[in-house]
């Protein structure tokens, strides 16, 4: 389906807060807040990857590996803090990558699949961004900024990471970009009530959702443009936007 075409129903009776296309456009991982499931793009083959046994367990923030074989996510298990786990796309090989007294959330794979960026308050302070090897080894602090830093998203060329910083006492966030070596942290813009963020394939621009509008901004913070806007502020339909959002929000197949 293209922008402006009629949406196609994939499944019914499935409550979800987030759905993410695999990079090949064949599968969708569904975050139900009580677990993760995968369904084929034609609506068949729905199967659970992991399901919470008690309400207090948190399972969220799924992210496909570049080769679509694994999914990283945040998981509190039955008696632990939030940590980063991976699981194979067929539901096998659940693996814990982080284990500390803080909370580790919002994992995002590097384009080559060798590393995972995530947010953590493991140092007992505010959430900051970290990068670790895909097997959980060598966690390295990426940001040391005032306030909180969340939702890292790698650029397709692997050189930069975009992320969000909440504005104190506000519903607004600031959109930042930082080089993967931790240098050149740059504020790109301020966003009121943001949705998710992603990059254009050539890494020249960051796309972000603000209410019912998708904006595009250059990676140096200049030339902000409206990329796509829904009529009548219909934010419930914002998922029907563009295949560039293939790995960050519920959208059409990347191959459409």
Question: Would you give an account of this structure?
Answer:
There is one protein chain. With about 260 residues, the protein is an all-beta fold. It has no helices and 20 strands. Strand 18 and strand 19 form a beta hairpin. It is globular.
- Helix fraction, binned, reads under 10%
- Mean model confidence by pLDDT: 81
Strand content: 35-45%
Q: Quaternary status of these chains? A: single chain
Output the helix-strand order.
EEEEEEEEEEEEEEEEEEEE
Number-wise, the strands total 20
C-alpha Rg (nearest Å): 17 Å
Strands side by side in the biggest sheet? 1-2-3-4
- Characterize the biggest β-sheet: 4 strands, antiparallel
Termini separation? 6 Å
Total DSSP helices: 0
Topology:
Elements lengths: L17 E4 L5 E5 L3 E6 L6 E5 L7 E6 L5 E6 L7 E6 L6 E2 L7 E6 L5 E6 L7 E6 L6 E2 L8 E5 L5 E7 L5 E8 L6 E7 L1 E6 L5 E6 L2 E6 L6 E5 L27
Antiparallel strand pairs: 1-2, 2-3, 3-4, 5-6, 6-7, 7-8, 9-10, 10-11, 11-12, 13-14, 14-15, 15-16, 17-18, 18-19, 19-20
Provide the descriptors you would attach to this structure in a database record.
single chain; about 260 residues; mainly beta; four-stranded antiparallel β-sheet; 20 strands; globular
In short:
With 256 residues, the chain is an all-beta fold.
């Amino acid at each position: 389906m293209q922008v402006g075409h009629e949406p196609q129903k994939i499944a019914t009776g499935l409550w979800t807060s987030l759905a993410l296309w695999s990079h090949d456009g064949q599968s969708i991982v569904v975050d139900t807040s009580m677990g993760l499931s995968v369904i084929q793009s034609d609506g068949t083959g729905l199967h659970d990857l992991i399901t919470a046994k008690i309400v207090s367990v948190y399972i969220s923030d799924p992210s496909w590996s570049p080769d679509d074989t694994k999914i990283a996510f945040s998981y509190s298990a039955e008696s632990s803090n939030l940590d980063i786990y991976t699981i194979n796309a067929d539901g096998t090989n659940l693996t814990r990558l982080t284990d500390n007294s803080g909370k580790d959330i919002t994992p995002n794979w590097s384009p080559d699949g060798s590393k995972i960026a995530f947010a953590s308050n493991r140092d007992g302070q505010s959430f900051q961004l970290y990068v670790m090897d895909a097997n959980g080894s060598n966690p390295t602090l990426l940001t040391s900024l005032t306030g909180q830093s969340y939702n890292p998203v790698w650029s397709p060329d692997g050189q930069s990471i975009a992320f969000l910083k909440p504005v104190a006492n506000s519903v607004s966030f600031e959109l930042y970009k930082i080089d993967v070596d931790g240098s050149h942290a740059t504020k790109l813009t301020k966003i009121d009530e943001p949705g998710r963020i992603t990059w254009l394939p050539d890494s020249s621009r960051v796309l972000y959702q603000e209410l019912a509008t998708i904006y595009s901004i250059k990676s140096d913070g200049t030339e902000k443009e409206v990329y796509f806007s829904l009529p009548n502020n219909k934010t419930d339909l914002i998922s029907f936007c563009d295949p560039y959002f293939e790995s960050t929000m519920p959208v059409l197949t990347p191959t459409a």
